Amino acid sequence: MRRYTTFAQHDEEIQANLSLLADKQTRAEIYANALNILGKKLAVLINPKITSSEKIVLACTSEDADWLGKGILQSLWNTNINLAVFWNLRAKVADDKELIVAPIVKSYIEETSNCKTLIICKSIIYTSCVVRTNLTFLINQINPDKILIVAPVMFKSSESSLNQEFESSIRKKFEYIYFAIDDEVSNEDEVIPGIGGNIYQRLGLGDSQIKNKYIPQLVKDRRNALSV
């Protein structure tokens, strides 16, 4: 069963785009556009929590970068934003669905020093292993004052599970922003309705290994801009 948060209860556009993600018949280009719109909607909620000049790092996975991540980036008031993109390989350990890891196989990270706010975005947070891995990596590099964890959809226990992975000095910096909470999981271990399956497959990026060959256009554009 899905429950909308206060951020989405009265926003028909958010609800409509969440429904597009959940619908397995939604074409890839429409699915991608829905993620971009939801990214922009998340940015509207992030803006009051940041200043116009503070140093920000926006972190996302490679499959989220060109759509959800770009939508957030395009709509933040602050322009002093550096990007961190991670390619993760999510896998079960010894076929134990309770023990899941998501090692980083590749990364693109811009300057992170003096970061005041770290924003971690993900299309859906379920087991939280990807967010946990990427967040742990970044916390070892920077010491932000605030950590915003944002997603269109979260599974009901994800927030508490993620909180338990970090000591109180880190956990107290967390603030969560999301539009919907789902509490069902299919036999295929997919959140229902969630985002209608695996994001990389819905976007046409291939399976969990093939998708890690994809270089987001956002990364290419930012890398080219920095080299000029």
Automatic annotation (TrEMBL):
The protein's name in its UniProt record: Uncharacterized protein
Organism: Flectobacillus rivi
Organism taxonomic ancestry: Bacteria, Pseudomonadati, Bacteroidota, Cytophagia, Cytophagales
